[in-house]
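Predict structure. Chain length: 293.
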Amino acid sequence: MDRVYAFMRRYSILCLLGANLIWSTAAVLIKSVPWSSFSINVVRNFIAIFVMAAARGTFRVKLTKTTVWGGILMSVVVLLSSLSNKLTSAANAVAIEHVNPAFVLLYLGIFYKKRPKLHEILVVPAVLIGVILCTMSSGLGKGNIVGDTCALLCGAAVAGTNMVYHTKDANPLDITYFSFILGALQFPVMFFDKTLATPLAGGGVFSLIFLGLFQMGAAYVLFSVGIKGVKPLLASLTNCIQPVLSPLWTLVFLSEVPGLYTIIGGVRFVAAVVIYDIYDIKVKKRAAAAETA
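Prediction complete.
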């Protein structure tokens, strides 16, 4: 049983890491599209609907209470993320949004009356320090209160979304699919977007299609498959790898060499998550052994 649990967990983590790897390309790709973030979001959600429908095998969706609330929360996450990136510095948005593991521990205590274990408490600041180090060389602190507040609320919403995905009757594919529909239904904003008058070059068209097919569609399929195989805290910790991966894409596509703080932060993040994961599996094995003894 322990081997089965470990295998399923590794598979889930790989799915989540794959999703975050694709998500981390968003900043580079969005910059190559001369439209507003709102119009880009509508188009990529529209494209992603077809990807998710193919993965689910149907365009229909059963609107349960969990699916509706989860879809709304996911749409709020996307909206707040767009606003924070627009109103504050990219470094601030990334660092503040990824405080969501702390919100997960808070929600577990308030709504589920679960007291976090010591290794769960220790891993949160370890990961957050890594995230802050990754963003220090990019101008952390150069933002404004409105944008920073949107980023903080986004982190809270991400944590809430992870909790909803882990409820017993939750269907992650349905929740994500419904959130895409809600995102596409925001199309009226495009009628007031003056940036749409700017023609798309070849690179912009490619980026827009990639954002819909992969950065939203394929990435969220991987996320929806992997999310229920790990605990909410580990899902949030895995999500924090995006600030580590972003400098990699800027190095590849924009020739921006990551600074020393970025490298140290990335190593700290990976080490913290790996150590947490290994230790948590050992805790599960001990608990299982105690039950069978």
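Summary: The chain has one domain: 2-292.
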